């Protein structure tokens, strides 16, 4: 057998354009696995010279699955440029819409994109292995998933006017308050959504008993974890401070102000992907590999902070080995369900807040600072929007650090791990290739967001294997 | 209209250079998806696992602008192999957000976003590498292949998508009600 390259193009049931290439040696063993991001829209450049007021609407078009996260991170960067505190009601409303978005996005990832693999089997018939296949085979589960996603989308629509790309958050607050007449119908959505989430968690636990091989090989390795936590150490998605934890559970950054992100990480560029490769700066590109997203958030927080979520988080920690943070990326599926539960509890709590229908929802000011950073925990992980503007508020420079970028190194490592564990060296089956794709799906990457700049000067780093062969090389900024 | 042995319509969805928001709006059909499942077979798209674009597709919904060589080729294939091509959403209809880069020369754009030194070039500049080459401009779908139905909106409302599909299933012309004909 000759050396050859196998390409999986496109990777399906993920959010964005990506492909996987596998390099096989003479014996048919996988020696290299790469995940390539293949589309580019250049948001950072096309935003230049736009008024920063427009940025929430433009940048939400980066991604149709998490537009609300971009809208909010952008509005928060705008708040910093105005130099204002937004009204307390606006703050609560923004949190509300963001939790709703986490619910819909996680539901999509779990039910529409990954559940076909989990319920029908990683190597099941590819014709059926999708959400409509699920409708035929597991109609109750499919209906639950559709319903849960709908609950999130509905809350977004009621608050922002549209379920995809609402034009609602602005620098200084939000455009419209929540009408008191809508409160009751929103509250009424929650109990059913909580039931769905809890029964899905139960179903998931039963199902994964048959997935021990996957748990072991789908990205189980020690790494750093990064995420926001509240000042009290609770699970946080809208504000808070940055925490970085190492693979042993030691906290490396305990409360970094998010604006200082440039001190915390740096990134590499490779010619084979539009997605960059960030790493934790103090430890360098190899040791500095970190993960973000649901798994990282559940690892870095001390507790969730709501009763139901705290209970299931406690159970989630059964996956810890010797008290170390949960290291298997496969557990992101469970982590998403836990976060959905948390968000639903938070939504319910916030809807009961006496001030939630207040009408003072926007602070007005002009440009008071020439730069602003907005950070948020998007469904897939920490998201930064960093803008520089001139005195008129026209954008001069934009840097976007997107969640899926943070996980780039981890995704590449994961597919290699799967290729080694499940490749048998003699034939490449469709089911084997789907396993690789599932390795990407567990990170639920949002590749539409795949461009940004940090720094300017590149140098080249090469990683060599034990025998001296080139494992990989990349540019360091 | 029916072309599968089961009498189902063969529907494909394609994602060119877009944000997936149009696909999300399609999913916002929610429970109607269950109904739709009785009449259509989803044969290709980011939500299903068939990698190549299959022959004899009845209706294809296309999200996104045509931004790179690979997408241009895809546009040709999907036109060739489908009876009805639907431009789904503003990016496919007008170029929308992806076309905002069109004033900038591709080389400058890529080099400023991916600063690499030492004779290496940024991804996307030339063909033949592992990522496709960007076109000089992001184009609306109709600038590349003939389009049969245009559904505007960023994204089009789920209702708009639902009513267009219903009409197409019955073999009728797509007529958008007032309120469905909007950009943004
Ligand atoms: S039209 Fe709007 S929603 Fe659709 S892909 Fe383009 S930006 Fe996204």
What does this structure look like?
The complex is a heterodimer of chains A (477) and B (184). Chain A is of the alpha+beta class and 477 residues long. Among the domains of chain A are: 94 residues, no CATH class; 173 residues, Cytochrome-c3 Hydrogenase, chain B, CATH 1.10.645.10. Chain A is 41% helix and 19% strand. Chain A has 16 helices and 16 strands. Chain A has a 4-stranded mixed sheet. In chain A, strands 10-9-16-15 form a 4-stranded antiparallel sheet. In chain A, a hairpin with a 2-residue loop joins strand 12 and strand 13. In chain A, helix 4 crosses helix 5. Chain B has 184 residues and is of the alpha/beta class. Chain B has a domain of 125 residues: Rossmann fold (3-Layer(aba) Sandwich), CATH 3.40.50.700. In chain B, 27% of the residues lie in helices and 21% in strands. Chain B is built from 6 helices and 7 strands. Chain B is globular and about 55 Å long. Chain B starts with 8 loop residues before the first strand and ends in a 15-residue tail after the last helix. Classes of the chains: A alpha+beta (477), B alpha/beta (184). Chains A and B meet through strand 3, helix 1, helix 4, helix 5 and helix 6 of A and helix 1, helix 2 and helix 5 of B. The complex binds iron/sulfur cluster (SF4). Iron/sulfur cluster (SF4) sits at the interface of chains B and A.
Features:
heterodimer; A: 477 residues; alpha+beta; Cytochrome-c3 Hydrogenase, chain B; four-stranded mixed beta sheet; four-stranded antiparallel beta sheet; 16 helices; 19% strand; globular; B: 184 residues; alpha/beta; Rossmann fold; five-stranded parallel beta sheet; 6 helices; 27% helix; binds iron/sulfur cluster
Present the secondary structure layout.
The complex is a heterodimer of chains A (477) and B (184).
Chain A: E1 4-8, E2 18-24, E3 30-37, H1 43-46, H2 55-59, H3 67-82, H4 88-120, H5 131-137, H6 139-160, E4 169-170, E5 173-174, H7 183-207, H8 212-217, E6 224-229, E7 241-245, E8 251-256, H9 261-264, E9 265-269, E10 277-280, H10 284-287, E11 290-291, H11 294-300, H12 307-316, H13 332-351, E12 371-378, E13 381-389, E14 395-401, H14 403-406, H15 408-422, H16 430-441, E15 459-464, E16 470-476
Parallel strand pairs in A: 6-11
Antiparallel strand pairs in A: 1-2, 2-3, 4-5, 6-7, 7-8, 9-10, 9-16, 12-13, 13-14, 15-16
Chain B: E1 9-15, H1 21-27, H2 31-36, E2 40-44, E3 57-63, E4 66-68, H3 69-80, E5 82-88, H4 90-94, H5 106-113, E6 134-139, E7 149-151, H6 158-169
The structure holds iron/sulfur cluster.
Iron/sulfur cluster sits between chains B (18-19, 21-22, 63-64, 89-91, 96-97, 154-155) and A (61, 64, 164-165).
């Amino acid at each position: 057998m000759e050396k050859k390259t196998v390409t999986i193009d496109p990777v399906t049931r993920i959010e964005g354009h990506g492909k996987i290439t596998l390099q096989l040696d003479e014996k048919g063993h996988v020696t290299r696995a790469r995940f390539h991001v293949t589309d580019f829209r250049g948001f950072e450049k096309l935003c230049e010279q736009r008024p920063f007021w427009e940025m929430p609407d433009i940048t939400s078009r980066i991604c149709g699955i998490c537009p609300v996260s971009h809208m909010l991170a952008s509005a928060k960067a705008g708040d910093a440029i105005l130099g204002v505190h937004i009204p307390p009601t606006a703050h609560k409303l923004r949190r509300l819409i963001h939790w709703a978005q986490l619910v819909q996005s996680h539901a999509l990832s779990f039910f529409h994109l990954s559940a076909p693999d989990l319920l029908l089997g990683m190597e099941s018939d590819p014709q059926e292995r999708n959400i409509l296949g699920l409708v035929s085979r597991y109609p109750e589960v499919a209906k639950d998933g559709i319903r849960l996603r709908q609950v999130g989308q509905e809350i977004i629509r009621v608050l922002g006017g549209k379920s995809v790309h609402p034009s609602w958050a602005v620098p200084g607050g939000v455009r419209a308050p929540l009408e008191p007449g809508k409160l009751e119908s929103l509250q009424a959505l929650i109990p059913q959504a909580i039931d769905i989430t809890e029964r899905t968690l139960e179903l998931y636990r039963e199902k994964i008993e048959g997935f021990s091989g996957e748990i072991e090989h789908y990205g189980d390795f020690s790494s750093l974890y990064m995420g926001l936590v509240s000042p009290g150490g609770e699970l946080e998605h809208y504000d808070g401070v940055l925490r970085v934890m190492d693979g042993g559970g030691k906290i490396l950054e305990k409360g970094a102000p998010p604006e200082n992100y440039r001190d915390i990480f740096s990134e590499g560029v490779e010619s084979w992907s539009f997605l960059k490769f960030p790493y934790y700066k103090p430890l360098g590109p190899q040791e500095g590999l970190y993960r973000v997203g649901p798994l990282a958030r559940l690892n870095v927080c001390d507790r969730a902070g709501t009763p139901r979520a705290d209970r299931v988080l406690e159970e989630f920690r059964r996956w810890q080995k010797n008290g170390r943070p949960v290291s298997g990326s496969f557990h992101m599926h469970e982590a998403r369900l836990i976060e959905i539960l948390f968000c639903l509890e938070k939504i319910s709590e916030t809807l009961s807040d006496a001030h939630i229908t207040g009408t003072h929802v926007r602070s007005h000011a002009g440009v008071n600072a020439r730069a602003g950073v907005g950070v948020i925990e998007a469904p897939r992980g920490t998201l930064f929007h960093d803008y520089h503007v001139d005195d008129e508020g026209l954008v001069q420079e934009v840097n976007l650090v997107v969640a899926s970028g943070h996980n780039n190194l981890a995704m590449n490592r994961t597919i290699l791990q799967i290729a080694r564990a499940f490749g048998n060296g003699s034939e490449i089956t469709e089911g084997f290739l789907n396993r690789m794709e599932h390795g990407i799906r567990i990170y639920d990457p949002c590749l539409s967001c795949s461009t940004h700049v940090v720094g300017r000067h590149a140098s080249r780093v090469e990683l060599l294997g034990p025998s001296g062969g080139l494992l990989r090389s990349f540019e360091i900024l | 209209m029916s072309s599968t042995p089961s009498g189902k319509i063969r529907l494909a969805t394609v994602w060119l250079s877009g944000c997936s928001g149009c696909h999300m709006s399609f999913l916002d059909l929610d429970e109607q998806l269950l109904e739709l499942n009785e009449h259509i077979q989803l044969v290709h798209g980011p939500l299903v696992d068939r990698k190549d674009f299959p022959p004899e597709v009845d209706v294809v919904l296309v999200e996104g602008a045509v931004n790179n060589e690979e997408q241009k080729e895809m546009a040709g294939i999907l036109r060739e192999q489908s009876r009805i091509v639907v431009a789904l959403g503003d990016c496919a209809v007008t170029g929308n957000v992806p076309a905002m880069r069109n004033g900038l020369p591709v080389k400058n754009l890529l080099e400023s976003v991916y600063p690499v030194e030492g004779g290496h070039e940024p991804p996307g500049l030339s063909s033949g590498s592992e990522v496709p080459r960007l076109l000089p401009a992001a184009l609306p779908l109709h600038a590349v292949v003939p389009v049969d139905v245009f559904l505007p909106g960023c994204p089009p409302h789920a209702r708009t998508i639902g009513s267009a599909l219903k009409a197409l299933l019955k073999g009728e012309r797509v007529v958008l009600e007032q309120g469905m004909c909007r950009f943004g």
